[in-house]
Amino acid sequence: MLLLLPDREPDLSWQRERGSIARQAAGGWGTRFSNPGPRVRGKSGDHIKAHKQNNIRRTLTLIRRAETFSVAGISHAVRLSKTTVKKTIDLLAGMNLVLSAGKGESTEEGGKKPELYRFNRNFGYVISIHVSPDSIMAVIADLAGDITYYKRQEAPSDRGLESILGRLAELVGGFVAMKASSSEKLVAIVLAIPGLADSSRGVSIYSPHYPAWGRDAPIVALLRARLGDGYDVPMFLDCVNRYQAIAEREKGVAAGVTDFIILDALNEGLGAGIITHGELVRGSQSLSGEIGHMTLNPVDGPTCICGNRGCFEAMVSARRLRDLIAGARARGVSSELFTAGAPREIGIDTVCELAARGDEFCRTLVDDAARWFTVGLGNVIMVNDPELIVIQGLYCAAGAAFLDKLRSGIRHVGLPDVEKKVRIEYSTLGEERGVIGGAAFAIADFFDHQLVFRSS
After folding, report:
1. Pick from 20, 205, 378, 417: CA 20 to 30 A from residue 54's CA?
2. The domain 124-244+436-443 is classified under which CATH number: 1.20.1050.10, 3.20.20.30, 3.90.180.10, 3.30.420.40?
3. How far is CA 242 from CA 130, 364, 368, 434, in A?
4. Pairing between strand 115-119 and 69-70?
5. 327 Cβ partners below 8 Å, 6+ apart?
6. Average pLDDT by consecutive 10-residue portion of the chain (456 residues)?
7. Domains 124-244+436-443 and 255-428 alike in fold
8. What is 255-428's CATH superfamily?
């Protein structure tokens, strides 16, 4: 009989040894803040040797990716004997990670129909929450990383840490209550936040969108205290842009790419998630990806929300566009934009949509933004040399013309005589990309590190 037993407190020394780059070969290394969940133990409780553990994980990885599978199919794919594969499937079935899926089709030569199996995506679930500058998005995701429940609400009006923690605890508690009557196990909770985050400590270092949080807010520890007993699962926290990069790799345009950058533009905010050689990059001080605060125009650029002048994000922000719009309106420039609402209400998406529809003034605004994007991306390319840059956020509404300007523009900045073989594409994911990536990160950690198999 197979029993699920709680694990001991994890050894976190590997975090210090590996620095601040999270290993992400298949989702990879994550920071654990509590007992890492179930392990499998049989009558003898003997630990399966490392090479057998690896074979089980290889088999389970293929099973998770397949709609249905047979022993023969998995045996061929992993190059293990059918007997070994059948024992592995029996082990996983005993854990309820694998379910029967009926009979398959006979071969052309006839013979017995093979038994088919499928991955039990409902073995457990992840709660993934994104605190954005103006809202909170929370989802339940199954172990295939698909969203099964979605909830979105406005951020608290006072924007204080206590109010945010209260909302987070309420959302987590409500989701767990929804699942109370099912056999599904909560395997992790993920928090994606704006601004600088230290994932190894579960801390918000600094969030310009939530200044009331202060510096080094221990969000994970405070949320654990709010939740109380019964939530002894890993809890992850990181800057949302890093999770958005994982989302692109798992379910977006960066599938199969090992060196890429996502760049997400909001009305007020511009951040990046960087994956290099398949690994998520955080840096020694968790500053990697803060490209919005690269200085592009220190002389006469607008003041950024960080306090400096001429930051990348300030040069392409809605606030700067509104200043340009107000000046053009005063000069009597003609544009459909001036009937779209008060200047203070106009956002990047409105400007981009009108530009795509042919409004000449909006096109000049988008062209100006493209010029600053080109300078910023040129700097990023010189530092990171990515294969792919994925544009996320509001500038995706600018259409093909914007991408064409970026693609042609990067040829003329930073070593213009050297060909830059980098693709620039729009993301196909929506606002849920942060919670998708957070869930994918936690799921990979669960299968790569939380499950340990023991012989029966």
Report:
1. 20
2. 3.30.420.40
3. 12, 32, 27, 8
4. antiparallel
5. none
6. 32 30 30 34 53 87 91 91 93 93 74 89 97 96 97 93 97 96 95 96 94 96 94 96 98 96 94 96 94 95 92 96 92 86 80 94 97 96 96 96 95 85 96 97 93 72
7. yes
8. ATPase, nucleotide binding domain (3.30.420.40)
Beta bridge partners of residue 100, listed in sequence order: 117
- State whether the Cα torsion 67-68-73-74 is positive or negative: positive
Taking the complete model, does pTM exceed 0.90, yes or no? no
User: Which strand ranges, in their side-by-side order, compose the sheet holding 269-276?
Assistant: 279-280, 269-276, 260-266, 388-393, 423-426
Between CA 249 and CA 244 the distance in angstroms is: 9
For residue 435, which of 238, 166, 217 has the smallest C-alpha distance? Answer: 238
Q: What is the pLDDT of residue 26?
A: 30
- 3-122: CATH topology is Arc Repressor Mutant, subunit A (1.10.10)
- Token pair of 422, please? 């980098």
CA distance 60 to 8: 24
Provide CB contacts within 8 A for 175, sequence distance 6+: 127, 138, 140, 149
Cβ atoms of 173 and 230 closer than 8 Å: no
